[in-house]
Write a structure and sequence with these properties.
By secondary structure, the chain is an alpha+beta fold. Among the domains are: about 105-165; about 265-360, Aminopeptidase (3-Layer(aba) Sandwich). The protein has 15 helices and 16 strands. The chain has helices at about 5-15, 25-30, 40-50, 55-65, 90-95, 110-125, 130-145, 165-170, 200-210, 215-225, 225-235, 275-280, 280-285, 290-295, 335-355, and strands at about 1-5, 35, 70-75, 80-85, 130, 150-155, 155-160, 175-180, 185-190, 240-245, 245-250, 265-270, 305-310, 310-320, 325-330, 355-360. Strands 12-13-14-15-16 form a 5-stranded mixed sheet. Helix 5 (about 90-95) packs across helix 9 (about 200-210). The longest helix has 18 residues, at about 335-355. The chain is globular, with a radius of gyration of 21 Å.
Length: about 375
């Protein structure tokens, strides 16, 4: 059995996830990442832009809203992601097989009601770009008053019952996000493409190509499924067992090559960057003091991180005022002059991607984790 070290795996993942060299344009980069987390849209723009020379947030927005090479929808774990439009049928094929976790009894819907909601959403967004209020009105009109019962705790109030099926409707291909209408989000029909049937196996292959070696349990955590669901998906793919620092895990059969050199370089990764969210084991990626400082209750992504030679080595924050972007970096290790120079280059790229004038301060980050 092949024995792999963490530096080998870290160097491979950096290459595969576009952090040691680009994978074509925006679509290729987002595909290599297995989606860009877009709950915070500016963070998604940074995730993609920092992996590509000369790309700004405008390029990412044009790929999403003008060229339509990307789509914005609910992806792994039900969270909002940017995905390549060309791959959407396979994402739908994979994510629609995720086991549905039952909601609390006070807000639960039957399987029949859930199907009615998904069908109503699909019908409502055909040829339209609807705000949430408009979509909610259409869903309740099509299904019945029960769908509008305010039973879902949300922020300082309650959402209607049907909204618990929102991410499920996206996973079944009923809608994608549309362009904003002022400050309001809109929802529209997914691109009209032929359906796919090999989604779970396809997703395993893409995940292991980018973030392997990994176990079914780690894949399940990343995708938002159960270990049983992940085990079934793994059985559909030809795999090779290896050991990472003595732990059994899997790679795609024949894809066991590793870079000859250990990881090198300094990187700034924004909130919920795909590299850290998918990166496991956590204790290797977030070694030493990073586990306490840069994780939030064991959750990765809630802090933007400083990556040094493939490991989390600090946190950072950016505050914008007009065109000025003040970047504060809190390292957890001493940075050499060469690494400080690399950090300055990363800060300049943050400014380029976000189209602002950046400045760097080395010091404590006082902002807490993102929710």
């Amino acid at each position: 059995m092949i024995e792999l070290s963490w530096p080998q795996v870290s160097a491979r993942r950096l290459e595969r996830a576009g952090l040691a060299g680009p994978h074509g344009g925006t679509e290729g980069t987002v595909a290599a990442m297995c989606g860009a987390h877009a709950q915070v849209m500016a963070a998604a723009e940074l995730s993609v832009g920092l992996r590509l020379d000369g790309v700004t947030r405008v390029h990412v927005r044009e790929a999403l809203w003008k060229e339509r090479g990307l789509v914005k929808t609910h992806g792994p774990r039900g969270t909002v992601h940017l995905l390549p439009a060309r791959d959407l049928p396979r994402w739908v094929s994979a994510l629609s097989t995720l086991p549905v976790r039952p909601a609390p009894a006070s807000m639960r819907m039957t399987d029949e009601q859930t199907d009615q909601v998904v069908a109503a959403v699909r019908e409502a967004v055909k040829g339209a770009e609807l705000t949430m209020d408009e979509l909610s009105e259409a869903v309740v009109a099509a299904t019945g008053p029960w769908a509008g019962d305010l039973v879902m705790p949300a922020f300082q109030g309650y959402w209607p019952r049907w909204r618990q099926a929102m991410h499920l409707a996206a996973h079944r291909g009923a809608f994608v996000f549309g362009p904003g209408r002022g400050r309001k989000v809109t929802y529209t029909a997914a691109p009209d493409t032929l359906p796919a049937t090999d989604g779970p196996a396809w997703l395993v292959r893409n995940y292991l190509w980018a973030y392997g070696p990994a176990t079914p349990a780690e894949f399940a955590q990343w995708a938002g499924g159960t270990t049983g669901w992940a085990n079934a998906a793994f059985r559909e793919v030809e795999l090779e067992e290896v050991r990472l620092e003595g732990r059994p895990c899997w790679l795609l059969a024949g894809d066991t090559g590793m870079p000859a050199e250990p990881p090198r370089g300094v990187r700034l990764l924004p909130y919920f960057d795909a590299y850290v969210v998918a990166g496991r084991p956590r204790e290797l990626l977030y070694a030493g003091a990073a586990a306490q400082r840069a994780l939030a209750g064991g959750q990765a992504g809630n802090y933007p991180v400083l990556l040094v030679d493939g490991e989390v080595a600090g946190v950072w924050h950016q505050r914008r005022s007009g065109s000025r972007i003040d970047v504060t970096v809190e390292p957890l290790c001493d940075l050499t002059t060469a690494r400080l120079d690399e950090l300055q280059q990363q800060v300049r790229r943050v400014g380029e991607v976000l189209e602002g004038r950046p400045s760097l301060t080395i010091g404590p980050v006082t902002v807490g984790p993102h929710a």
